[in-house]
Fold:
Amino acid sequence: MEIRYKPEELTRLPRSVRYEPGKVIMIDQTLLPSEFKEIELRTVDEVAEAIITMKIRGAPAIGAAAAFGLALFVDTSKAKTKEEFMEGFEKAYEGLKNTRPTAVNLFWALNRVKNLVEEHMEDPLDEIKGLIVSEAQKIADEDVEANLRMGHYGAEVLPDGNVLTHCNAGSLATVQLGTVGAVLRVMHRDGTLKLLWVDETRPVLQGARLSAWEYHYDGISLKLITDNMAGFVMQQGKVDAIIVGADRIVANGDFANKIGTYTLAVLAKEHGIPFFTVAPLSTIDMNLKSGREIPIEERKPEEVLTCGGCKIAPDVDVYNPAFDVTPHKYLTGIITDKGVVWPPFERNLKRLFKKE
Ligand code: MRU
Structure:
């Protein structure tokens, strides 16, 4: 596969999260689409809070933000000895780890930094500190490169025409470009994406607030629909392919993604529409055998009881799972940064990791 575009040829958006000594800078996604604002965070706790409250969200973006949180720990630590430093590091690691449970990129990124620290335990403290900061930066840079590759792989296998997406797996959900976002952007540049259908994605509206905003910003022609319109649009023959992101793909190909993904997958099968997920290897958790093992985050009732800050229901009991699990039988293929994985997923995912 040949990389034909540079990131700056695919998007006008800046990175959603970046690090400068003493601060983590991120786009506050809770303010979009009304306001585009970058915020500066100066402590580990502020980064953890930003992840919990979804100022930053999307599996790869959460991973990069958490890694930068550890870099901030380096900048703010007042430890005088290696032991004191490691005690604080463990606390920072735990605090960031306990923010959101479903997206595996969070744990992947934190463990990548932690494992490196453990491998270098005998080195001088200043060197360990330098390693933490540079590893966090590497995680962010590699995310953009992975997205670029997925974008080009995906554009090779998606049919020309109208594509439907759910939630936001765009630039905002990653460091830059997006997973789904990269595929759509390459197709847009190639002229093969005719129209993008964007599901609004209740309850938090990542489709309406974030996907519609960022794809419109980059000049992609789109139509926004409410989630319950997707089936009718498919029945009318107006969707040629569906692509969604993933928060965790497990060894047999089952995957967790934003609530509502499973419904789309079943509808896609009924209508013979190819259904892809797009995710880097950091989203694949080979330690879990089936989707039933994925922890599903439940969020607060207010997200369902309100919409855009307005109360839309009486104070009744609410069930608010943030993700659902799509069984692999509904998947046409998994677009990764190492190529497209086709069924049988269990065998081919194993092979993908052997190639590593
Ligand atoms: O709750 P969110 O907004 O973090 O959920 C995001 C999604 O479900 C995305 O589709 C997924 O993280 C993939 S992002 C490239």
